[in-house]
Design goal:
The chain is an alpha+beta fold and 509 residues long. It folds into four domains: 2-93, no CATH class; 156-198; 245-432, no CATH class; 436-507. It has 20 helices and nine strands. The protein has helices at residues 2-16, 31-43, 53-62, 66-76, 79-82, 84-90, 102-113, 156-177, 186-199, 203-220, 261-279, 312-326, 330-340, 349-360, 373-386, 396-412, 418-433, 436-462, 465-472, 478-507, and strands at residues 121-130, 134-141, 146-152, 237-241, 246-247, 281-283, 291-294, 298-301, 307-309.
């Protein structure tokens, strides 16, 4: 009941700001919706409706809590879809919210770390950025190092819990009342968003994620992360070295002398893909407020509250789909979708490949500024509906991060060719993971696993004479099984090696 009232309150606040069905879009509404929008504006009264649609939506989202603010942050990265003015109006939600008072911040640090502020810091400054869940302060350690101290907002856990109940109710209503939305698995999507947000409420977990990602980033060099100061980490406090460069949310960041904007945008795409494909772990909140840049093309990421992970199978599917698009091999992309279970098996793979060609060919090789992403997304949505593709909750963070990273890269360099930027990382992965040596190792691991299972079966039968005697007439002898297993493993290794040699020669041209 409480969630229901809060959901009604959300709609009311959006309507009061004219951010639910904005008057600027009224001409595009069908007649019934146009009438409803006018009645709604009449019912909600005059309200604070000044400013552009993005400004009104930002004001409304800021009052609706952390999860609503994160939704606005995502929208703000896609100026190519929603327009530059709309994105800029929402940009303040990234790190320019109202901070909480200094006395509360000092108390939170001392309570979480269990010691006086002066025991760790020789200086502790006012907030330099404030976001939906926390705010950051500039400080100086006793050894002279400048650091950033992130502190959770007071009462944010209760706010997230209330928001989560509203989201769950909205998801259930969407599944019940909107048949077309069911394939998007709204309730599963909601649970994924809630789980990711709840992890952000323990900054010890964020510190561990930042430490892990820092190690991963150091291996590739596309992106870096500040070092975690573990003695300054608690459940509600995180201390890390001061990030180098300027935050991308600062309009002056891209005007720094010597900045190579095309290289910077390319490295952002490559950093995300290298993390996801090579390591199976990636920074899943790559909006401008979390990225610091410096000349010529250095990127340092902060805020590790949301981390995405991909298992080896998911990494292979992602790499093969991207490779298929890079090679314009739509039949291969279609096969991967069917193999992964993304498209139900009763559909025709060739027809699906034809639909993918209709999406890929118009955008391949073109710069970001020449591609209307809103049209591409609409076409993709229509195609996924035609082939009964459902949203995959386990891929939500990956898809959200891909969308955010692409939007930020387009903002950095409108001339960026996204496919050309992705090519080196995807090609490297394919050559490494599908090389003869890798394939032989994979097949060998499978053969060893099969032999272990066979040995365990034989040992189990040896411990049970009666069952072994009963099965003896219907089953080959142990020696036959072992030799058959060894022969099968050897055949698998040889066949796999031959196939991967052929594939590698093809990849090398």
């Amino acid at each position: 009941m409480g969630a229901g009232f809060r959901l009604i309150g959300v709609g009311w606040r959006l309507a009061r700001q004219d951010a639910l069905l904005p008057r600027e879009l009224e001409a595009t509404f069908p007649p019934a919706l146009r009438l409803f929008a006018r009645v709604l504006r009449g019912l909600t009264g005059p309200g604070p409706r000044s400013g552009r649609p993005g400004e009104r939506l930002a004001r409304a989202l800021e009052t609706l809590g952390p999860i609503a603010i994160k939704f606005g942050q995502l929208l703000s990265t896609r100026a190519d879809i929603f327009g530059l003015a709309f994105a800029q109006d929402l940009a303040r939600l990234k790190d320019q919210l109202a901070p909480f008072p200094m006395d509360q911040a000092r108390h939170a640090v001392e309570h979480s770390l269990g010691r006086p502020l002066e025991a760790l810091f020789q200086e502790f400054g006012p907030p330099v950025a404030a976001a939906s869940l926390a705010q950051a302060h500039s400080a100086v350690l006793r050894d002279g190092r400048r650091v950033a101290v992130k502190i959770l907002r007071p009462g944010v856990e209760a706010q997230v819990a209330r928001d989560s109940e509203v989201l769950r109710l909205a998801g259930r209503l969407a599944e019940t009342l909107l048949p077309l939305a069911r394939r998007l698995e709204p309730l599963a999507l909601v649970e994924t968003v809630i789980a990711a947000t709840e992890l952000e409420l323990d900054l010890r977990l964020e510190a561990a994620g930042g430490d892990e990602l820092g190690e991963v980033m150091a291996r590739d060099g596309y992106m870096s992360a500040p070092k975690i100061i573990w003695e300054g980490v608690g459940k509600r406090v995180l201390t890390l070295e001061w990030a180098r460069g300027m935050a991308l949310s600062d309009p002056a960041a891209l005007a720094q002398p010597g900045l190579d904007r095309p290289a910077l945008a390319g490295r952002l795409i490559q950093a995300f893909l290298a993390q996801a494909l090579d390591h199976g772990v990636f920074h899943a909140d790559l909006h401008e407020g979390n990225l610091f840049v410096s000349a010529p093309a250095q990127i340092e990421a902060v805020d590790f509250g949301i981390i995405g992970r991909l298992n080896p199978e998911g990494r292979r599917y992602l790499a093969e789909i991207l490779w298929g698009f890079l090679e314009r091999d739509y039949a291969r992309v279609a096969r991967v979708h069917f193999d992964a279970g993304y498209v139900p098996s009763h559909h025709d793979s060739a027809i699906f490949a034809q639909a993918l060609r209709a999406v890929g060919e118009p955008v391949f090789g073109r710069s970001a500024q020449d591609v209307s992403m809103s049209r591409v997304l609409i076409q993709l949505f229509e195609i996924t509906a035609l082939f009964d593709m459902k949203l995959r909750p386990e891929l939500v963070l990956l898809q959200k991060t891909m969308m955010t990273a692409e939007g930020v890269a387009r903002h950095i360099s409108p001339d960026l060719d996204i496919w050309a930027a992705a090519d080196p990382v995807v090609r490297r992965w394919m050559l490494r993971e599908l090389s003869p040596l890798s394939q032989v190792k994979r097949f060998a691991d499978q053969a060893v696993s099969a032999l272990r299972n066979l040995t365990a079966l034989l040992e189990a039968e040896g411990r049970s004479p009666s069952s072994a005697m009963t099965a003896q007439a219907a089953r080959p002898s142990p020696r036959t099984l072992i030799w058959a297993g060894l022969a099968g493993a050897a055949l698998t290794l040889v066949t796999g090696a031959l196939l991967t040699v052929i594939l590698t020669l093809h990849l090398l041209g």
